[in-house]
Amino acid sequence: MQDRLLCAADTALRTLFATPRAAKPSPANGLEEAELSAAEKKLSAAYMRVNHVGEVCAQALYTAQAMVTKDEQLREHLLVAAQEEMDHLAWTHQRLQALGDRTSLLNPLWFAGAFLIGTVAAKVSDRASLGFVEETENQVSAHLQSHLERLPQHDAPSLAVVAQMKDDEERHAQAAIDAGAIPVPPPAKALMKVAAKVMTTTAHYI
Predict the structure, then answer these.
(1) Has residue 183 got a pLDDT over 90?
(2) From residue 88, how far is each of 3, 25, 162 by CA, in Å?
(3) What's this model's pTM, rounded to 2 decimal places?
(4) Secondary structure of 76-141 in HEC code, one letter for each residue
């Protein structure tokens, strides 16, 4: 457990204070930057900041669950998913830099909240933990679909990143189901949606 705590602390520091490094090239690579108006650039950056916050939370969630579970196979599964989410973290960070904007000032708060929720879910049971992953990924996928519809349609690099992220999140949700996830109870699902709404609305600006 001490080793797992140290790994969790390392992940937190790297997620919040280091420049994220992707294992896979960004889908935006090779795509020409569009001529965006000031308002369009601000809008694209706001959505990418929201998506970056989502990936900060994903790191916290998967790290907490991997720390708690006693199933080594599940732990490995969670760590692999976390690495893929690290790609997303790096891609959204790169897009924010390209758009001349910043990440959320509240990232430490988002990370702490997601880590706490992930720990609690994992303490219930591995299947409940996986159910939380499934529901989270489904909600994230829905948000990403809305971003695909609202982003400036000539901002090809941002659209490419969001589209690939959506595909990956859907795959993670299915992987959780295949691993034995049990559905999140309706009250908890509703609470998750409210919390996600607060987070995405706040991160849009701060």
Answers:
(1) no
(2) 26, 10, 9
(3) 0.89
(4) HHHHHHHHHHHHHHHHHHHHHHHCCCCCCCCHHHHHHHHHHHHHHHHHHCHHHHHHHHHHHHHHHH
